[in-house]
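Attaching the record inline, Q. Sequence:
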Amino acid sequence: MARPAESVRYGGIELRRWLRTDEDTLHRIVNESLAHLRPWMGWVARAGEHPREAVRRSLGEAAGAWESGDGYSYAITVRGQVIGSSGLRRCGEPDAWEIGYWVHPAQTGHGYATDAAAALVEQAFSLPGIERVQIWHDAANVASAVVPRRLGFTEIARRSPARDPLTPGEIGIDVVWELLRAETR
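Structure, as predicted:
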């Protein structure tokens, strides 16, 4: 089975596969980013510290998805320091992958999420049969909209109700962006 690279450099970042041994690092950066993540990420604990068990479970699920080929999760690093997370996951269509990303609040505004998404576009299109890459975000998350715009994605839909349960910052309208392989040549 074809898989993307486990480590990729792009612009000012390096993506490297999340490993179970990254539990302490992931636990730390999620907890340092709670106020930044809670409005948008349904997986983040609603109150208090994000539990270590949730981090452990997430890393286990990421390892399983990598092995099955259903998803590829990466730490975003800058000069060897983890500053966020990104990944590819199947989006229900056999020829398409979806990109997700988040960056520690102290690292926003440097283009790191854009670099991570660009690297993931390349990785997705390196896989056989993949013709489309999508990015989904809630319409209220204007910061997330910057990334697909910068990378030349086209907004193809606004869907309501949202596909996932609402988080505190969301308004319930999913904005769907898409980039076609043919547009990257």
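The helical segments are 23-32, 34-37, 52-68, 112-125, 142-150. Residues 10 and 167 are 31 Å apart (CA to CA).

More tomorrow.
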